[in-house]
Hints:
The chain is 57% helix and 14% strand. The protein has helices spanning 2-16, 21-76, 80-90, 121-128, 138-144, 188-239, 254-281, 283-311, 313-329, 336-367, 377-391, 411-428, 486-496; strands spanning 96-102, 108-111, 148-151, 157-166, 177-186, 373-376, 398-401, 406-409, 436-444, 447-454, 501-505, 511-515. The strands form 3 sheets. It has a 5-stranded antiparallel sheet, with helices on both faces. The protein has a 5-stranded mixed sheet with strand order 7-9-10-12-11. A two-stranded antiparallel sheet has the order 6-8. A hairpin with a 5-residue loop joins strand 3 (148-151) and strand 4 (157-166). Helix 9 runs antiparallel to helix 10 and helix 10 packs parallel to helix 13. The protein is elongated.
Amino acid sequence: MKQTLTRLLDALSSRAAGRSLRTGIPILLLVFTLLVSGGVLQYSLRQADRAVEATAVDAITQRANRMESTLEAFYRLGQGESVQAVLSALGAESGHRLAAVIDERGVVIAASRGLLLGESVEAVLPRLMRDVVILAEAPAVQSRMAGIARLAADGNSVAALFPLQLGLRGGALRAQRTGLLFLEYDLGERKAAAAAGVRQAAWQFSAFLLGLALLLWLLLYAMLTRRVRRIVATMRRVAEADFSARTGITGRDEVARIAQAFDTMTASLGDARMQLQHERDHLEEQVAARTTELSRANQELEAFSYSASHDLQAPLRAMRGFAGVLLEDYADRLDEGGRDSLERIDRASLRMSQMVEDLLAFARSTRTALHRTPVDLSERATEIVEELRERDKRRIFEARIQAGVTAVADPSLMQSVLANLLGNAWKYSRESESSCIEFGAETVDGEAVYFVRDNGVGFDMDEAARIFEPFQRLHRQDRFEGTGIGLATVWRIIQRHGGRLWVEAETDKGATFRFTLGGAD
Length: 521
């Protein structure tokens, strides 16, 4: 029965899963009712069995006590046939299984079954009794003259073993002999009757629970399910862009608050949609205005670039030219201080000219269109290294260029990246005894990573965050020349390619710049 109930509950639970509240709640209530009813039924059956067993033990103890006195009186009067009549009459009682009087030799001298008379207890009773272990208590019962009654091991019968004084017939009582009275009753009918009563009560209890569950479902449907269905219907209308839909639910309970919050959200969405539609209607006008502003800004930037490359460069070249003329033609008329001042003017104008060129290169790195094509980076790096050798033929340095390094990138912008990185490596390693610059690539987690390495002065990694900002320098101008624009230009170009740029360095041990070029590598 337990397995059947478990299978039924599993089937009902599976049917309830995925159902709507209207059908799911009744199924769950039915499952709950069956669980409670089944649990109560099982508990009541166990309690009924225990009550029957306890009552049977008490009843057979009282029966044995009464029979003990009666049978002893019959034996003292020498009426053994009356004893047999009493035991025979027990056989007609409901639930009776066996009754016997056993003398001190272990022989049956009276029994509810006539065939047992004169038989040895060890030969016949073990075949008829359900609790044969009770016979092992016979010596203790005879010695203590105290009877015992107990439930059989299988719980289906109850047995009693009580001592009897078997008196002899005569004028005066002579020596007494101790016998035993054995009784056994079957509990099957009693337990069946008790179980039937329990089941009848369980059905009545289940009917009450079902009625209660039905009432609870009606209350839940009125308070929860009906309103939830209305909320779901309103959600469907809102999902179809009907922002005028409202649940219309009022109250202070949780469901009402959810519905009211949803109505408020729907109203906000409707207002936002109207605003979005309004902005969309004017979007083309706004785009046209922004395009005009952007075009104007580009024109102004172009004008600035032209002015910077021509109008600013011309005065700078004039300054350098006149300073050079003074140094060449009037050097003998100038003292040492005058010549030093002219040399300072020449160096400052040269630096200013280089800064203007670098600023123009920085601006072009963000304005020019990006055209990705296959680029042989090893070949470009080799050409740049040769230019560095021509720049200072007296300087000796080692260059390690990995062959066959290619990428899909903008050729002109990659030329600027390699020129800046290799130029910095060449510049900052000139104080090393055996300077060396390297260029190559490696694969890290399936991604191509390019690097430029030197063994120069390096720098403290605490300063690494600002070296990619314009005009930021980590070394003095009188030690290493430069404008602080090159690495910022490299940063912008790598970003435009969708890549990353980072550096690893250590003071007096050189630096390694690494970069990637995005998914199109």
